[in-house]
Structure to design on (297 residues):
């Protein structure tokens, strides 16, 4: 039996590696639709998929259902998200053991957002406070069993007092054992390039992978920007404001993400992580004809 591909190794090839993020559907019909879209996305030769994990662990079992199903369907590595929210160290270890048993090879390790109604993050008794502590736990409890991705914020995490503090927090996560950094979504590549330069200056040497969301309407873009503090460029806002026709707005959003993708490739990113919201139409149009993904065997 061959050894699993290490997470960072996906980003050392000649081609720009890509990956897709999914979320756990709430219904069986949603799972069937997810499977259809995964089959379509697989044609773009991603290196792996990831699946999110609901606030407070609310979708733990469904997350692992997706991990297991996508692993069976595609034969590709699948990463489970994992947060510190609402879980003790013992519960985190139990989740990790079950994730490994069900085929997860990678973990996206996150502190997590404060529970709904809370203004700040509070660790439960016996739990963890910071993302770097979660990375340390994984490395100590499951040595060499998981690849680990952590989150970076080109426009600064909304709770960080300044960019330097945010960068120091990221460095702690990498020093604890993270293999790659995947960024929060952004709409202006210059924000990513400034962030990448700052990471290099701080001594962060793991691959920095940009995260892109192909938005399909302006209301969606505004809502997401408000949630994660992402700036919408003036030209994108102006174009989407010209016409509220659904097809027009879809095209503007997809075209913007395609331009972002091409520019990122030309500027030497090792890979791109796409937040596809369990859909494939936008990703398929955005990636059509581009030389991305794993090389064909």
């Amino acid at each position: 039996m061959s050894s699993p591909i290490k997470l960072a190794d996906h980003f050392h090839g000649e081609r720009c590696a890509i990956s897709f993020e999914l979320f756990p559907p709430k219904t069986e019909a949603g799972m069937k639709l997810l499977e259809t879209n995964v089959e379509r996305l697989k044609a773009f030769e991603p290196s792996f998929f990831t699946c999110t994990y609901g606030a407070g662990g609310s979708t733990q079992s469904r997350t692992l259902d997706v991990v297991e199903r996508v692993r069976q369907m595609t034969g590709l590595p699948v990463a489970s998200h994992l947060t510190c929210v609402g879980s003790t160290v013992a519960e985190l270890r139990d989740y990790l053991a079950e994730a490994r048993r069900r085929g997860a090879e990678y973990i996206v390790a996150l502190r997590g957002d404060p529970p709904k109604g809370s203004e700040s993050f509070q660790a439960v008794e016996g739990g963890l406070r910071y993302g770097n502590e979660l990375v340390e736990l994984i490395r100590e409890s499951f040595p060499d069993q998981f690849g680990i991705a952590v989150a970076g914020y080109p426009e600064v995490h909304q709770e960080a007092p300044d960019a330097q503090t945010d960068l120091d927090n990221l460095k702690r996560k990498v020093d604890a054992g993270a293999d790659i950094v995947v960024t929060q979504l952004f709409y202006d590549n210059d924000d990513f390039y400034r962030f990448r330069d700052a990471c290099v200056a701080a001594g962060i040497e793991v691959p920095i992978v940009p995260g892109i969301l192909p938005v399909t309407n302006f209301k969606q873009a505004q809502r997401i920007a408000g949630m994660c503090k992402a700036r919408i460029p003036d030209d994108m806002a102006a174009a989407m404001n010209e016409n509220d026709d659904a097809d027009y707005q879809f095209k503007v959003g997809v075209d913007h993400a395609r331009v972002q993708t091409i520019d990122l490739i030309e500027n030497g990113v090792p890979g791109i992580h796409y937040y596809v919201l369990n859909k494939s139409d936008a990703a398929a149009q955005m990636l059509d004809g581009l030389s991305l993904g794993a090389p064909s065997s």
